[in-house]
């Protein structure tokens, strides 16, 4: 299997850094029907990936850190200036109530971390629970204060064990004498466009600004500027009435042929899958995430994983990890597109065996 992010002589944490830098971010999610999605996404690209590699990259090498993109995600530490801009915006005007807390509570929790060292919510046992004032909020004042200080940039997540997070002073975690310079709005716009071009190749305004509609006018203006300069080329897709996608000229160079036998069992939160309309437009497959859909209305199943064979999505398999028995349970198997048992069953079975081995190894 190809290992594009693994370089001889480098550690697994280096491969994690390379993969996260290429993708721009790797989403974190709490659902654990199978392996959590951040580990699953990295394993899909780094065949020898181990969970400890991500821990090392975050807590030892400090080449990745956690912050919000369209969801909580691992992002490259080299991109910190662009996230400092968002942290500043949050300090001045929190967009969501559940990310804010009374200023005195935030100062108190930051002071406690400064004096006592990194801590998790489990280390705080003196909370007096309050009524929630937001559906995603917390009844624990300390949790709200930790979240607010995290989104403000005063604290960062220095370590994660499962879904238990330890918070540290951001400057102390990274060893800053002075924080990096905050990116300007124009630099942030260029950053999100360049990130999408690197990760996606062929981009649209929607794919660049996934769940970030306020940024669309600035991104479209920058695309138009780059088209005039010859730095981007418009691409007309089949059945398009107007060019709505763009690509860098160098990315139009012919690619090596894709081995149709190369098969990946993908997370529903994988960067290739998460943008449903783009996936449908380019691959002819509209994924349905049905964990929150009533059972009677599910088509593919509770926690369905798309299967990419070569350059086609050929199956959608609802899988559950049976941890006591250390095996995968196939709840439902649906062929999609040109997928069929005669052409794809053996290679998918082999990929499932590899995926099962990854699920239950230490």
What does this structure look like?
The protein is an alpha+beta fold and 362 residues long. It is 38% helix and 17% strand. It contains 13 helices and 12 strands. It has helices spanning 12-23, 37-45, 51-59, 80-92, 103-116, 141-152, 170-174, 185-200, 205-208, 216-228, 271-274, 276-283, 341-360, and strands at residues 26-27, 64-68, 72-76, 119-120, 155-161, 164-169, 233-235, 245-247, 263-265, 304-309, 312-322, 327-335. The protein has a 4-stranded antiparallel β-sheet with strand order 9-10-11-12, with helices on one face. Strands 1-3-2 form a 3-stranded antiparallel β-sheet. Strand 5 and strand 6 form a beta hairpin. It is globular, with a radius of gyration of 22 Å. The two termini are 21 Å apart.
Biggest β-sheet: strands ordered side by side in the sheet: 9-10-11-12
Instruction: Estimate what percentage of residues fall within beta strands.
Output: 15-25%
Distance from first to last alpha carbon: 21 Å
**Radius of gyration from the alpha-carbon trace, in angstroms:** 22 Å
> What low-confidence regions span 5 or more consecutive residues with pLDDT below 50?
none
Number of helices: 13
What structural class is derived from the secondary structure elements? Answer: alpha+beta
Count of DSSP E strands? 12
- What is the N-to-C order of secondary-structure elements (H for helix, E for strand)? HEHHEEHHEHEEHHHHEEEHHEEEH
Oligomer: single chain
What is the averaged pLDDT score?
92
Largest sheet: 4 strands, antiparallel
């Amino acid at each position: 299997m190809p290992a594009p992010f693994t370089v001889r002589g480098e550690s697994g944490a280096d491969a994690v850094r390379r993969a996260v830098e290429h993708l721009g971010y790797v989403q974190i999610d709490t659902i654990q029907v199978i392996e959590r999605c951040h580990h699953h996404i990295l394993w899909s690209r780094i065949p020898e990936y181990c969970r400890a590699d991500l821990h090392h990259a975050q807590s030892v090498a400090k080449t990745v850190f956690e912050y919000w993109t369209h969801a909580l995600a691992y992002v490259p530490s080299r991109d910190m200036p662009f996230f400092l801009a968002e942290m500043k915006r949050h300090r001045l005007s929190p967009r969501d109530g559940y990310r804010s807390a009374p200023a005195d509570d935030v100062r108190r929790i930051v002071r406690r971390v400064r004096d006592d060292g990194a801590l998790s919510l489990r280390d705080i046992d003196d909370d007096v629970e309050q009524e929630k004032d937001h559906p995603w909020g917390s009844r624990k004042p300390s949790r709200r204060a930790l979240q607010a200080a995290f989104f403000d940039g005063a604290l960062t997540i220095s370590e994660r064990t499962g879904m238990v997070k330890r918070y540290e002073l951001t400057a102390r975690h990274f060893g800053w004498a002075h924080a990096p310079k905050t990116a300007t709005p124009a630099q942030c716009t260029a950053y999100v466009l360049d990130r999408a071009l690197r990760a996606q190749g062929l981009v649209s305004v929607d794919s660049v600004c996934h769940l970030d509609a306020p940024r669309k006018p600035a991104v479209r203006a920058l695309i138009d500027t780059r088209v005039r300069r010859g730095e981007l080329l418009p691409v007309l897709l089949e059945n398009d009435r107007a060019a709505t996608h763009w690509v860098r000229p160098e990315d139009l160079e012919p690619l090596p042929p894709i081995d149709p036998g190369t098969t990946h069992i993908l997370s529903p939160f994988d960067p290739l899958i998460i943008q449903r309309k783009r996936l449908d437009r380019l691959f002819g497959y509209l994924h349905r995430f049905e964990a929150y859909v009533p059972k009677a209305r599910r088509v593919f199943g509770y926690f369905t994983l798309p299967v990419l064979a070569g350059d086609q999505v050929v199956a959608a398999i609802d899988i559950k990890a049976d941890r006591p028995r250390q095996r995968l349970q196939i709840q439902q198997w649906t062929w999609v597109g040109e997928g069929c048992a005669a052409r794809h069953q053996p290679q998918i079975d082999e990929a499932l065996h590899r995926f099962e081995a990854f699920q239950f190894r230490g």
